[in-house]
């Protein structure tokens, strides 16, 4: 059985004190560059692995970040996690990921799991079915830094990173108007989630800007899914005054709308325009390709880590509530571009 290599083993081979080895491995400024190189070379050759548990007991930090996402099915969250993990690794942090499955109960369990794991900080995108937010307050009471990304709740005064959902929705709706569509519907998400209520607000603002009367019949509340897109189309096509375009609250909803329109035999974009929100990977590979709003997912992940890292670093100080808002980009593809 292979014996676990310790700092003492490295020190013995080099003929130096274990304390010097420990400082060299932690990049202490009092240790010379030459000594650090020698120590690290021997550590690699002997396959030395630091005892993270012992290190966390000494420092009071586990170097773990908990990331709670609503679902792993959407590439959006995978891309955000990619941004978080990249920077976390550079700063010596590992990432624990917990999936709430859009369930308030699972979300609460995830927070409990992170608290038990003694993570240094928590990043959360709120479940669409969460209406009680007491579990986030619990993390704050435990003095664990917490921040939201993408799906946020301003009433909790928890720092957050998100895209400008209002502006993105305005841009999406405006692009349909500029393409000549005159009666634009919106398939929304649960309105208690700020991101989705902001998208409704941006949709209405674009209509107002172009002097198009808002019609409440042209909003269908969905649940962020392909089925929501299909059901929304079926609902709208039963109206006496039917729409000629749909702005989907996110790309899976827009995909469902496209699939249903294709099933019915309505031509996109000639007869009907569709635009989504997210810029999920599949959008450019379907026919017709999907117009959308780019949410800057990797940048969002990087900003989320930067935010939680700052909160962790200033844990003993009174840190001001922060909102970091990214600027979206319009991606025009075939589904909304009429000749």
From TrEMBL:
Pfam families tied to this protein: LacI, Peripla_BP_1
Top-level taxonomic group: Bacteria
Keywords, alphabetical: DNA-binding, Transcription, Transcription regulation
Domain annotation HTH lacI-type: ranges: 5-59
CDD domains: HTH_LacI, PBP1_LacI_sugar_binding-like
GO-annotated molecular function: DNA-binding transcription factor activity; transcription cis-regulatory region binding
Annotated InterPro entries: HTH_LacI, Lambda_DNA-bd_dom_sf, Peripla_BP/Lac1_sug-bd_dom, Peripla_BP_I
Protein name: LacI family transcriptional regulator
Organism: Flavobacterium seoulense
